[in-house]
Amino acid sequence: MQISSNSVVQFHYTITENGTELESSRQGDAMLYLHGHNQMLPKLEEALQDKNAGDTLEVTLAPVDAYGERKADAIQSVQVKHLQGAKKWKPGMVAWVNTDHGERQVTIVKMGMFKADVDTNHPLAGKTVTFHIEILSVREATEEELAHGHAHGAGGHQH
């Protein structure tokens, strides 16, 4: 089956910049998404269109098509109690913060006793990245997945 709108696609990925690995799903679970429902980078989804299980591909994206350009004014001060992901924080670490727009990754710039200065740019902002994709499976979405607007993994949904 070819990837098309309303397909559930499972794949492994590795993201590199100039040949250096930045992130990979290979040490854990493969990614799963509902194609055509704006659940991933648009140019990456476009490259996956019409591919099949077993296909591999490389897609290089400029910052504007990947995680955006870095914004110099993206430093904010947040209370340490709102940082999620570790118990002790140091500059350079990535944390999660709940915002009005959902969870967001931030990078610690400076730590204080009660507040931290964080960079709200995505950790990969400003980078030209290459996605190395291996498509594991492609199937039609179930009616339930379409109604929920996302793919369900093994064992169904957890909501």
The N- to C-terminal Cα distance equals 28 Å
What is the C-level CATH assignment of the largest domain? Answer: Alpha Beta
Low-confidence stretches: none
Strand proportion, as a percent range, falls in 35-45%
Integer-rounded radius of gyration: 18 Å
How many beta-strand runs? 9
Structural class: mainly beta
The number of helices is 2
The tally of structural domains comes to 2
Enzyme class: isomerase
Domain PPIase FKBP-type: 6-70
Subcellular location: Cytoplasm
InterPro entries: PPIase_dom_sf (IPR046357), PPIase_FKBP_dom (IPR001179)
Concise description?
This protein is mainly β. It has helices spanning about 40-50, 145-150, and strands spanning about 5-15, 20-25, 30-35, 55-60, 75-80, 95-100, 100-110, 115-120, 130-140. One of its GO terms (molecular function) is isomerase activity.
